[in-house]
Amino acid sequence: MTLNLKTSSVETREQRLGTIIGWDGTATQLADESAFSRGDCGGCGGKARRICELEGPFTQGSVCSEQMVECQAGNIRDAVLIQHSPIGCGAGQVIYNSIYRNGLAMRGLPVQNIRFISTNLRERDMVYGGADKLAFAIKAAVERHAPKAVFIATSCASGIIGDDVESVARAAEAEFGIPIIPLHCEGFKSKHWSTGFDATQHGILRQIVRKNPEKRQDDLINVINLWGTDVFTPMLGELGLRVNYVVDMATVEQLAQMSEARATVSFCYTLGTYLATALEQEFGVQQIKAPQPYAFAGTDAWLRELARVTGREQQAEDYIAREHARVKPLIAELRPKLKGLKGYVATGSAYSHGLIGVLREIGVEVDGSLVFHHDPVYDSEDPRQDSLGHLVETYGDVKHFTVGNRQQYQFYNLLQRVKPDFIIIRHNGLAPLAARLGIPAIPLGDEHHALGYQGMVNLGESILAALQHRKFHQDIAKRVSLPYKQSWLAEPDPFALSRGATA
Question: pTM (2 decimals)?
Answer without folding.
Answer: 0.94
